[in-house]
Design brief:
WH-like_DNA-bd_sf, alpha/beta, RNA binding, transferase, 59% helix, 5-stranded parallel sheet, 2 domains, Arc Repressor Mutant, subunit A, Rossmann fold
């Protein structure tokens, strides 16, 4: 496991490393501040940010950075609303006044599991949205074929399916091409 601990206080950062003793393989690095280039260069499995209080600049950096890894925050104190901001910035676990070596490993395990689940859900949502858009495109293309070629709905779908098979493309891609060509012929966007 590769862990990047970001904390200006080396003693507090050592508590995180102590909590991970016995994890094999383990590589822990410490940095005083969050710098996206350092995170990308090290490519940790998890980023642990420990601080007295969450820093708005760090939260902004997390929000703007590419979040391809779980982030866990251990803070000594928190103001109202900061936990929500941290979660919106991509923090998988936000722990107030709970940095103790015995708690580090279980919290990181849960955060990494939740992060993986969240990533899977985001992927599923993106696929569902893309499938819905493709379905809408197919419906519009069927409508165009029904109008222009005098086909019924089933005949329009069979034609789209045949075109897709002949071209080795998905029905959605063929439908999008058909609608684009129809737009060109109508003079849309010219």
């Amino acid at each position: 496991m590769r862990v990047l601990v970001i904390d200006p206080d080396a003693a507090r950062a050592a508590l995180v490393a102590q909590g991970l003793e016995g994890v094999q393989p383990l590589e822990v690095r410490h940095a005083a501040v969050y710098i996206e280039a350092e995170v990308v260069a090290f490519a940790p499995d998890v980023v642990v940010i420990a601080a007295e209080s969450p820093d708005r600049d760090t939260l902004d950096s997390l929000r703007e950075s590419s979040q391809g890894r779980p982030v866990v925050m251990f803070v000594d104190r928190s103001e109202p609303g900061l936990a929500e901001q941290a979660v919106r910035a991509g923090v998988a676990a936000y722990v107030v006044d709970g940095l103790a070596p015995g708690r580090v490993r279980p919290i990181l395990d849960v955060a990494m599991s939740r992060f993986a689940l969240t990533q899977q859900l985001r992927g599923d949502l993106a696929k569902a949205k893309a499938d819905l858009e493709a379905r809408k495109t197919v419906e519009r293309a069927k409508g165009l074929l029904m109008k222009e070629r005098g086909l019924d709905e089933d005949g329009a779908y069979r034609l789209l399916r045949k075109l897709a098979m002949d071209r080795g493309k998905s029905i959605g891609a063929v439908a999008a091409d058909l609608l684009a060509f129809a737009g060109v012929l109508r003079g849309d966007g010219a």
